[in-house]
Amino acid sequence: xxxxxxxxxxxxxxxxxxxxxxxxxxxxxxxxxxxxxxxxxxxxxxxxxxxxxxxxxxxxxxxxxxxxxxxxxxxxxxxxxxxxxxxxxxxxxxxxxxxxxxxxxxxxxxxxxxxxxxxxxxxxxxxxxxxxxxxxxxxxxxxxxxxxxxxxxxxxxxxxxxxxxxxxxxxxxxxxxxxxx
Length: 181
Fold this sequence. Notes:
Blueprint: H1 16-22, E1 28-41, E2 44-56, E3 61-69, H2 72-85, E4 88-89, E5 101-105, E6 108-114, E7 121-122, H3 125-132, E8 139-144, H4 149-161, H5 171-180
Parallel strand pairs: 7-8
Antiparallel strand pairs: 1-2, 2-3, 3-4, 5-6, 6-8
């Protein structure tokens, strides 16, 4: 008895799903928000979709992208491409961030604080999704003043950009010199 394969025709293309499953994804993608936006024209309204996507590698890189498209899939794909272009590297110290940081972006304020091991990610909605795609496992955060998901996402990324690795702190050299004397 001859075993049947998925592609029964000899010259057929490989199945698209099989090809995607074969290669492992380098980045983890998460869709934070999808909005339907309208443009008013002479004949009525034209609807498009706006997607907010975060991309991270669960090590120390993350990026956020926003894009519009004629349908949901096109918007998500464009936003993913934008997020990959705008990736940043985060200094992670023992599973958390090296110091507190507070950033105001447009109307949104985001506060990020390092947390002790075992605390987990204590954050709401957008901030939790963004931090979840990084290598950070313990963090305290609060988002203030705004409920706009796009502004909160950009404020979170801006806060992560402002983090300084511990070895670049100004006072660590003084402590090291005192310990050697």
